[in-house]
Automatic annotation (TrEMBL):
Protein name: GH3 family protein
Protein source organism: Dioscorea alata
Top-level taxon in the UniProt lineage: Eukaryota
Length: 582
């Protein structure tokens, strides 16, 4: 009689011994949330006292702006232990910005181990829900970006670039549950075209092996689909001939691809027949028929992409596996196959010290009202505050989370939103003040024509990939005949893009992941109609404010039905990699 090996854990039947250990680890840290958090504080030398009360009394809650002078000192080369007793190994460039530039997050060498630890928990959880993931590969579109150096010589780059370039990733031991179709060389190329092309090619070559398709964010996976729409012809030529396109010049990529590419006319024909069809619905399932799920984040700002992903994937399940940032990796989703609207993340207590500002809509909260990880209450919203191993102390991340329940003693959070973000296509985050400044700057160009912007609103239009910003303008004109010409309005579009933060401009220029900004001029009186509509739905006349971003379909319909002119930015705004730290 065959004996079935069993790795039973409170989370479920683990797929293998290693998984069982990892799942048990999750159980241990979540059962001991308070203890693990307390142990964290003991690392602080608070004049001899390491208890929570002293911590709360002595350490202020801060924002990035409060830390900026210290961060600048480190960036300029001061090696004294300013934020952290460990040497700062590099800066991680966040997609959050301060004064238009990416925030620089200090990090230390050992943080890589902690990030690796969080990653190592993902597949054991996934294997509880999807069997057989060791029988094939994952098609993941992963990218690095260019890096820069601060004046003091520290590297500044995005956290994922740092991770993919690390020994941890490049020399990861073989794990049958984590085999990628993309060779490392295709991921580790800063040229986004060559990287995407070669990753897509490998994905096509291994089409029957692919069991899951993913990218970090939903927008990244849709960019890959768009790339296939634009480049399938060349890709199928390469597959038919077994010769890699000369456009791919990176020698490491060429070597890696030469090992797997040989003439395959049948595969080429199949892909031509699928891609030349006008019907791209369910294309992911057709090209990669064994795909069990999509591995992409579709929570927060990414929720706008769910319908498009459903369309291209033929309604495959979408797994949101983790919640992380440049500052700190926070937690994982213990039920990754749940519906996107049900996704919750359990913060892993060993990743940092976590506190929560009750978020009741009012902006006043002081540091004594902060709640600890184990003490948050179900049904309440909080703003996340973190203290990290790399020197951030009681730092406000800017994310608003809702507690939906507990796993053991660790709370599960639904990501509600990021504070102060109006528009977002992918990692860009444009707030109300930035949009206001951009409109003000562009409307200067109308002055010579005696015209001005009297009202505006916006939407992130993601119906077409790449998505783009749409800004609705109502203009005040000297007379209806004096509408500024198309060229002027195009210049206004570009001027607005020039005014956007560096993450927006990089996405536009270097990544091509945001399309040209569009201005839609609406008929005079449209914004009054908008107000009438809001009032008819119960808004108070006294308190009515023009929404600076709209996504409610009836309001968008109203706006779009009043559009009299539409213009797009005719060129890319300025962006240079050396200034922004990409
Ligand atoms: P960055 O520092 O550029 O890596 O951006 C981190 C931010 O991305 C977080 O603070 C969140 O606002 C957002 N984010 C990260 N993971 C998720 C997720 N799983 N769901 C929603 N938003 C997320």
């Amino acid at each position: 009689m065959a004996i079935k090996s069993s790795f039973s854990t409170p989370l479920g039947e683990a797929a293998c011994e290693n998984d069982a250990k990892k799942l048990q680890f999750i159980e241990d840290v979540t059962n001991n949330t308070k203890k693990v958090q307390e142990r964290y504080l003991q690392r602080f030398n608070l004049c001899g006292s390491t208890d929570r009360c002293s911590f709360k009394a002595k350490v202020p809650v801060v924002t990035y702006e409060d830390l900026l002078p210290d961060i600048q000192r480190i960036a300029n080369g001061d090696r004294s232990p300013i934020l952290c007793s460990h040497p700062i190994s590099e800066f991680l460039t966040s997609s959050g910005t301060s004064a238009g530039e990416r925030k620089l997050m200090p990090t230390i060498q050992e943080e890589l181990d902690r990030r690796q630890l969080l990653y190592s928990l993902l597949m054991p959880v996934m294997n509880l829900y999807v069997p057989g993931l060791d029988k094939g590969k994952g098609l993941y579109f992963l990218f690095i970006k260019s890096e820069t150096k601060t004046p003091g010589g520290l590297v500044a780059r995005p956290v994922l670039t740092s991770y993919y370039k690390s020994e941890h990733f490049r020399h990861r031991p073989f794990d049958p549950y984590n085999v990628y179709t993309s060779p490392n060389a295709t991921i580790l190329c800063t040229d986004s075209f060559q990287s995407m092309y070669s990753q897509m090619l490998c994905g096509l070559l291994y089409r029957h092996d692919v069991l899951r398709v993913g990218a970090v964010f939903a927008s990244g996976l849709l960019r890959a689909i768009r790339f296939l729409q634009l480049h399938w012809h060349q890709l199928t030529l390469d597959i038919a001939s077994g010769e890699l396109s000369p456009k791919i010049t990176d020698p490491s990529i060429r070597t890696a691809i030469s090992e797997i590419l040989s003439p395959n006319p049948d595969l080429s024909k199949f892909i031509i027949s699928e891609c030349s069809s006008d019907n791209w619905s369910g294309i992911i399932k057709r090209i990669w028929p064994n795909t069990k799920y999509l591995d992409v984040i579709v929570t927060g700002a990414m929720a706008q992409y769910i319908p498009t992903l459903e369309f291209y994937s033929g309604n495959l399940p979408m797994a949101c596996t983790m919640y992380a940032s440049s500052e700190c990796y926070f937690g994982i989703n213990l039920r990754p196959m749940c519906h996107p609207s049900e996704v919750t993340y359990t913060i892993m207590p060993m990743m940092g010290y976590f506190e929560f500002i009750p978020h009741d809509g009012s902006t006043t909260s002081n540091s004594t009202t902060l709640v600890e990880l184990a003490d948050v209450e179900v049904g309440k919203e909080y703003e996340l505050v973190i203290t990290t191993y790399s020197g951030l102390c009681r730092y406000r991340v800017g994310d608003i989370l809702l507690v939906t329940g507990f796993h053991n003693a660790a709370p599960e959070f639904k990501f509600i939103r990021r504070k102060n973000v109006l528009l977002s296509i992918e990692s860009d985050k444009t707030d109300e003040a930035e949009l206001q400044a951009a409109v003000a700057r562009a409307s200067e160009l109308l002055k010579p024509f005696g015209a001005s912007v009297i009202e505006y609103t916006s939407q992130a239009d993601t119906k077409v990939i790449p998505g783009h910003y749409v800004i609705y303008w109502e203009l005040l004109l000297k007379s209806p005949e004096e509408m500024p010409g198309g060229e002027v309005l195009e210049k206004c579009c570009l001027e607005m893009e020039e005014a956007m933060n560096t993450v927006y401009r990089q996405s536009r220029v270097a990544d091509g992941s945001i399309g040209p900004l569009e201005i839609r001029v609406v008929k005079g009186g449209t914004f009054e109609e908008l107000m009438d509509y809001a009032i008819s739905r119960g808004a108070s006349i006294n308190q009515y404010k023009v929404p600076r971003c709209v996504n409610f379909p009836p309001i968008l319909e109203l706006l779009d039905s009043r559009v009299i002119l539409t213009h797009f930015s005719p060129a890319c705004p300025t962006w240079t990699s050396c200034k922004s730290g990409s």
